[in-house]
Every structure is written in structure tokens, then in C-alpha cells.
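Renewal narrative, Specific Aim 1. Our central claim is that a sequence can be written position by position from structural information alone. The example that follows is taken directly from our test logs and has not been curated for this report. It begins with the C-alpha cells describing the chain, in the order in which they were read.
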């Protein structure tokens, strides 16, 4: 029987301890000699210089380890909102996930967002309540918070044990054992506990939570139910079977507790990952596998993180393909690949995110609709002008930007005919990281302007039709086009040109592409023109007309058609969620109001102040520095796009 494979991800709100937990799991499994610390820049999973400098995860790190005769591929995902696309792509390749909840802060905004992603992706989820090395943080309150906010019933499977106000061990419910640290810092079972007949607070807690687990599992296993009703003891094997069924139900969540920093509760959690996650699925018989991430290493070039869909030895690999294990930024060649396992792949052609590759090394036609849907989930909120320091670098910079764009589906590049580019990013952190990587990985020296808010432009009236003609030598393109605004908040671009459906494919594709591209920069240059229906009334072309001619004719027609007076500007408004100690509440709230923010929700528990506010994005540039200064570094916040509102009417 081949070794089972499990692919797992770890998700959390920023600063919940996600990467620290990842390091502790690798330490528990014997993959690293000592767990690296994020704050010291030594985390194994955070290998990028930008990750070490900022203490955050940017790219989904991948590690491998064995536990309980199960092979794990372990993906540590970003917690920062600017890198949400990384989370989405990671979740396409995993069977299960750990969602980390900080007992210091409870369920936070990004915790909720991550949980929703997991539910939408159908990924089985186990909770880990972290930071319980501080006895002032309440496990019970956190569990109540989980149930109220996430809407699931947490089933507690491990809990901290304190002695003299210090975390000394963890009680494992399923095995009814106590885990303590060995001399080398590993979690081990305390074989001397409990003494025969010993009754203590810890033994009573274990008895209580074991009974609760039996009660929950009895809803899913008839033998457990019968034993419970007859008042007979339920052995761990029977309970395990019932809990495996419970883990499939979205109304419940198995929950483990401890401290990643101190290394308590990690062993119980890792064992749960081998017990309660589903097998890898069955894949198409003709498929080699699927691309789940793209990376670029200086001196190596581009590689793909690749999930294999088949078992295959090296001698059977398609020509030009190589597979390796990825450890941080090191490649270790392998001699075979296994179905469901994750590898670093080098191929004879450029790959695309989500692309399926067949056994013969071929790929299907590009699914533009699917790729567009991934990009549409992430609305670029900033645009930054970038140009070369020297004209001789132009083509290298352009190629490098396109590679970064392929690697990150939330990043877009708009080329300008003036010889520069606009970088469209979700946020400031993403922009800073992209510019840093552009220089470090690709050797590109560029001049970047200050980031600006990427507004939206909308038609305020129907316009046209207008006619435009472009002629080059014997070839001539003529177009007659009008435009009308779409109803409501629709932001797509639509085309009505039924008579062109019978035209050659490249003609219709060229018209569509040109009209879409003409709306990207907008009329005022502040952002894209959205929510428009173009109607092509007439379109004529001479035989042999080239696509650039079609583009030129259409773009010039749009310039003639839509004038600045025909559009209204809409600006992005963010929903800011923030918490800080109560003594900073007044300063923080006053600062938000000075930024034209509207506070819409206030709460707290007497120690911590919480608020939600709507704030224009243009007023919240550099907020991280400002709020850190005001709160002396104690405030935590997150932002998400609320929507777009007409400028001046906030």
C-alpha cells in the first residue's frame, strides 16, 4: 500500500501566529532542527527577503514532511489582504486546512474572510486556538466567539494546562494523555501521568471534554451512540471513527488549542491532520497534472509549482520536463512523481496558473473566461506609473513585468504608447514588494512614480454614434460606434455587434480586444471606464488588414466618441476594521474622522476598543505608519473594498 498523501494549507488573520505554527509543525515532524522565528527573520517558510524584512508571508511557502506514515505537502498562505490571490490559488491544491485563531484577538476580519474562502472551496478545516501561553487569554471566550462569528460548533480536542500561571503542558482529549516538553523542546507524552487513581483538575477536564466529544460523535456513529446510551465506556478507536464522520459536517469544527510560540498543542494538531482530512481526489486518466503556482528564481528562471495527477517514473516523463522537491528556494530532483503530490516543475514552455497538462506534455486551449474570473475577484485599487531608466532596458522590463503579472493574478500591467507602464495593484504593500522583486529577481532598474488611487469612470449619458476611418497603404478600416451606460453597479464592458459574428474570428476578436483595452486607462486617465455597452453599427475592412490597424481604428473611435464631460468619477471607499487598547480609542477615532471616515460601529470589552468605519481610499494612504504612531504600535486593523461612490458625495 502506497503512503497516503495530504495537502494542507494554513490560514489566519495577520499576526495570529500562522507562520510560527507552520515552523513548529515542521519542527515536530523533524524537518527542521529548530523552529525559525518570524520576528527574527528566520522562518523557514518565509524565504523571500521581502518576507523576512516585513515579517509577513507573501508567497505561499511549500514544505514537505512525514507524520504518522502520511506524507504532507504543507502550504503556508499569506495573511495580508494584498495577497489574497495567493490564498485562492493555494486552496485549489489542498484537501484540508488549519485556520488559526488568536486567543488574544478572537475571530478577526481576515479570519472570517479566510473561513469563507475555505467553505467556498470545499476545504475541510481544523481550528487551532493560538497564543494560550498567556493565561489571561480565555479559551472558553474564544470558543464562544468562534461559534457566534463563524457559525460552527467547535469540538475541543486539546486544551492547555497551567501550573503557577505558566503553560506547562497540553491535555489531548482523544488519547486522554498529557503532553509536555522533552529536554530537546519536543512535545512528548508524559508516561508518568496520571498516577494510578489520581484525580485532579486536569483529569476531570479530560473526562469532561472526552464525554463532550462522545456526545458530538454519537450523532454520526451508531456504535458510539449505543455505547453512550447504555452507559458503557466508548473506546478511543470508536470515538475516532465517529469524529472522522463529524469532521465532514460543516456545522462542526474540530478545535485544538495551545501556543505555537511555546510549542504546545502542535503534536495533537499534526496528528489530527493525519486522521481527519480526506484522501486526495481521483484525477482525469489522461492528465499529467495542474499548475498551482508560478515562481521565478534568479539564475534559475521560471518554475511551476505543480500538483501531479498521475504516478510516473522519470523515464516516462514527457520530453523537456523536470520535477523536483522545493525546499525554501532550493530544488532537489526526484526520480518519480506520485498522484496528488506537489512538485517544482520545469517545462519546455511557459505555463499558466490553473493550467492542466496532459500525459504527453500538451496543454488544452487557454480558458480565458476562467482566467478572467480569477482576476475579476481582485479589484486593483492603485495605479503607479513606471518607466525605464534607459531605453535599452525597455524589452527586458516589459518581459519581466509580464512574468510577474502571470505569477500574481491580482496584479495587472497596462502598457502606454508613451513608452511607460501603469502597474495596477490591490494595495501599497503589494506594490512595494513587486518593485523590490522586479529589481532583485529580474535585475530591472526602473523609476516608479507615487501610487495613485485607481478611480472608476462611468458614462453619465448615451453617446454617439461616431464614425472613424484608419487607412494604411491599400488597407482601410472603418467603424461606426455608439455607447450607453449599463444599469446599476454593473462594471463590465459589453459589445453588441451581431453582424460581425459571421466575420472572420480574428476580426471580431480584434474589435472586442481593442474596445476593452481602450477602457482600461479611461477618458480622464484616473482609472478604467466601466459599465458600458458599445454598439458597433457598421464595420468594414479590406482583405489582409492587420490586427494593429483594427486596434488603432477602434481606439481612435472611442476617443472621438466619449469626451471628459460624458463621464462621472467614482472613488473607492474602504471598510476599516480596527481594534486597540481603550486608552487610545479617542486618538484613533479622531484620526479616522479627520480622514473623512464615517464610524459606523463601535464596541469593546472594557480593555480593547473596536470600531468599523468607511474611509475614502485616497485619505488613508500611509495609514500603517500613522496609526502605529498614534497607538504606540498596539492597534491592529484590516481593510476591504466596500464599493465605489461618486466623488464629492461621500
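The sequence written for that structure reads:
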Amino acid at each position: 500500500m502506497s503512503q497516503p498523501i495530504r495537502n494542507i494549507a494554513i490560514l489566519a488573520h495577520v499576526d495570529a501566529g500562522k507562520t510560527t505554527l507552520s515552523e513548529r509543525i515542521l519542527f515536530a515532524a523533524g524537518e527542521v532542527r529548530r523552529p525559525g522565528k518570524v520576528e527574527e527573520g528566520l522562518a523557514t517558510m518565509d524565504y523571500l527577503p521581502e518576507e523576512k524584512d516585513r515579517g509577513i508571508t507573501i508567497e505561499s511557502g511549500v514544505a514537505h514532511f512525514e507524520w504518522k506514515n502520511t506524507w504532507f505537502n504543507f502550504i503556508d498562505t499569506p495573511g495580508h489582504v494584498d495577497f489574497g490571490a495567493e490564498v485562492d490559488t493555494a486552496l485549489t491544491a489542498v484537501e484540508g486546512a488549519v485556520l488559526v485563531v488568536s486567543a488574544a484577538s478572537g475571530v478577526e476580519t481576515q479570519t472570517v474572510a479566510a473561513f469563507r474562502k475555505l467553505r467556498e472551496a470545499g476545504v475541510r478545516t481544523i481550528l487551532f486556538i493560538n497564543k494560550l501561553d498567556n493565561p489571561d487569554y480565555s479559551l472558553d471566550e474564544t470558543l464562544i466567539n468562534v461559534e457566534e462569528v463563524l457559525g460552527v460548533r467547535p469540538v475541543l480536542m486539546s486544551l492547555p494546562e497551567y501550573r503557577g500561571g505558566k503553560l506547562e503542558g497540553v491535555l489531548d482529549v482523544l488519547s486522554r494523555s498529557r503532553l509536555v516538553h522533552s529536554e530537546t523542546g519536543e512535545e512528548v507524552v508524559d508516561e508518568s501521568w496520571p498516577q494510578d487513581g489520581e484525580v485532579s483538575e486536569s483529569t476531570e477536564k479530560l473526562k469532561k471534554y472526552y464525554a463532550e466529544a462522545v456526545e458530538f460523535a454519537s450523532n454520526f456513529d451508531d456504535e458510539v451512540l449505543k455505547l453512550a446510551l447504555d452507559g458503557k465506556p466508548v473506546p478511543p478507536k470508536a470515538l475516532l471513527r465517529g469524529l472522522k464522520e463529524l469532521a465532514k459536517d460543516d456545522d462542526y469544527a474540530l478545535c485544538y488549542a495551545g501556543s505555537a510560540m511555546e510549542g504546545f498543542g502542535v503534536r495533537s494538531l499534526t496528528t489530527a491532520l493525519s486522521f481527519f482530512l480526506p484522501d486526495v481526489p481521483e484525477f482525469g486518466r489522461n492528465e499529467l497534472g495542474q499548475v498551482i503556482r508560478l515562481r521565478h528564481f534568479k539564475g534559475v528562471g521560471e518554475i511551476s509549482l505543480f500538483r501531479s495527477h498521475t504516478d510516473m517514473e522519470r523515464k516516462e516523463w514527457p520530453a523537456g520536463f523536470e520535477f523536483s522537491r522545493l525546499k525554501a528556494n532550493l530544488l532537489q530532483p526526484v526520480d518519480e512523481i506520485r498522484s496528488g503530490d506537489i512538485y517544482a516543475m520545469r517545462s519546455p514552455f511557459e505555463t499558466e496558473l490553473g493550467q492542466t497538462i496532459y500525459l504527453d506534455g500538451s496543454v488544452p486551449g487557454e480558458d480565458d473566461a476562467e482566467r478572467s474570473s480569477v482576476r475579476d475577484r481582485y479589484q486593483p485599487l492603485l495605479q503607479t506609473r513606471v518607466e525605464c531608466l534607459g531605453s535599452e532596458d525597455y524589452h527586458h522590463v516589459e518581459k519581466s513585468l509580464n512574468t510577474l503579472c502571470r505569477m500574481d493574478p491580482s496584479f495587472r500591467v497596462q502598457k502606454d504608447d508613451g513608452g511607460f507602464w501603469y502597474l495596477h495593484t490591490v494595495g501599497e504593500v503589494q506594490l512595494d514588494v513587486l518593485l523590490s522583486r522586479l529589481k532583485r529577481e529580474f535585475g530591472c532598474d526602473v523609476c516608479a512614480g507615487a501610487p495613485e488611487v485607481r478611480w472608476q469612470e462611468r458614462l453619465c449619458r448615451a453617446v454617439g454614434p461616431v464614425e472613424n476611418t484608419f487607412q494604411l497603404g491599400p488597407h482601410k478600416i472603418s467603424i461606426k460606434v455608439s455607447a450607453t451606460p449599463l444599469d446599476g453597479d454593473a462594471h463590465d464592458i459589453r459589445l453588441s455587434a451581431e453582424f460581425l459574428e459571421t466575420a472572420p474570428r480574428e476580426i471580431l476578436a480584434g474589435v472586442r480586444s481593442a474596445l476593452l483595452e481602450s477602457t482600461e486607462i479611461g477618458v480622464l486617465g484616473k482609472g478604467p471606464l466601466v459599465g458600458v455597452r458599445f454598439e458597433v453599427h457598421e464595420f468594414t475592412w479590406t482583405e489582409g488588414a492587420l490586427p494593429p490597424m483594427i486596434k488603432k481604428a477602434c481606439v481612435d473611435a472611442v476617443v472621438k466618441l466619449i469626451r471628459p464631460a460624458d463621464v462621472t468619477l467614482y472613488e473607492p471607499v474602504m471598510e476599516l476594521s480596527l481594534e486597540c487598547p481603550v486608552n487610545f480609542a479617542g486618538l484613533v477615532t479622531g484620526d479616522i474622522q479627520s480622514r473623512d471616515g464615517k464610524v459606523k460601529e463601535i464596541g469593546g470589552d472594557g480593555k480593547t476598543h473596536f470600531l468599523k468605519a468607511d474611509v475614502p481610499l485616497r485619505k488613508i494612504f500611509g495609514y500603517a505608519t500613522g496609526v502605529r504612531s498614534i497607538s504606540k504600535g498596539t492597534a491592529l486593523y484590516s481593510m476591504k473594498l466596500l464599493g465605489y461612490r461618486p466623488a464629492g458625495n461621500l
